[in-house]
């Protein structure tokens, strides 16, 4: 049992309030996933003072770890080797903003010099945090309440099939500005993983949810539209699930054929919100006037900016 959340801000005036709206949603689902949690936040360039104002060539690289890391030392190390980069340290992680042409070199050099540090996500708009422990504590450590942005996809995890670590926490980011969170389980993840590995796909964990995320990314890289790629995941992956997918342009949600895993959606002119339980939506402004519904089985719902 886990909790999934998606919050897409349609009204630009609400973007500075993203974190303030998001934290109570996460707290409402904390009991569904007390082991670990994670958030993918999408923000317009320079919404939080980063290097995004430098244009489309700037990529945000989110770093985290399951070990003890002196993040200030890492920030100094990055600055000494990549003087044009900017580094933001928060909680038990950091984000490096630098030119797209330098991303591969950065990830390789960080992996060599800081073996406990892992890349949790990359993208022009995307910041990712993941950590173990109570979700509300993670929100406090990372100052989530002060976040601005236009989309957040979040997860609270109760581990059932793999370790409780930050690397095993959701969201999984299988490609730039693409994230996936999952409530449920897949019974054939091992066979699908072997096929993807034979195709050259690399994994960061042995979590079954990551298999679905990597399959989705493979289909997208092959030219599928998001709706078609999501339907392919439904076809290939056996199990019970609610998936929430975040992209640079919007958010999607889909449930399995039996709709075993709960989900509720609230749609207004100001936002679209998805959560595993309605109580996570109940505190949102204007929710009493929202269109509220339960996603139907095997229907891909997509909302864009």
Please tell me what the overall shape is: globular
Strand content: 25-35%
**Which fold name is given in CATH as the topology of the largest domain?**
Glutamine Phosphoribosylpyrophosphate, subunit 1, domain 1
Q: DSSP helix count?
A: 7
Order of strands, widest sheet = 7-2-8-1-14-13-15
Structural class per helix/strand content? Answer: alpha+beta
Q: Please estimate the helix content.
A: 10-25%
Which CATH top level class of the largest domain fits?
A: Alpha Beta
What is the average per-residue confidence, as pLDDT, rounded to a whole number?
A: 94
CATH superfamily of the largest domain: Aminohydrolase, N-terminal nucleophile (Ntn) domain
End-to-end CA span: 30 Å
Question: Biggest β-sheet, characterized?
Answer: 7 strands, antiparallel
Number of DSSP E strands: 16
Topology record:
Blueprint: E1 3-9, H1 18-28, E2 36-42, E3 58-65, H2 71-81, E4 86-90, E5 93-99, H3 103-113, E6 117-123, E7 126-132, H4 135-141, E8 151-157, E9 172-175, E10 178-186, H5 189-198, H6 208-221, H7 226-236, E11 239-246, E12 250-255, E13 264-267, E14 271-275, E15 291-293, E16 301-304
Antiparallel strand pairs: 1-8, 1-14, 2-7, 2-8, 3-5, 3-6, 4-5, 9-10, 10-11, 11-12, 12-16, 13-14, 13-15
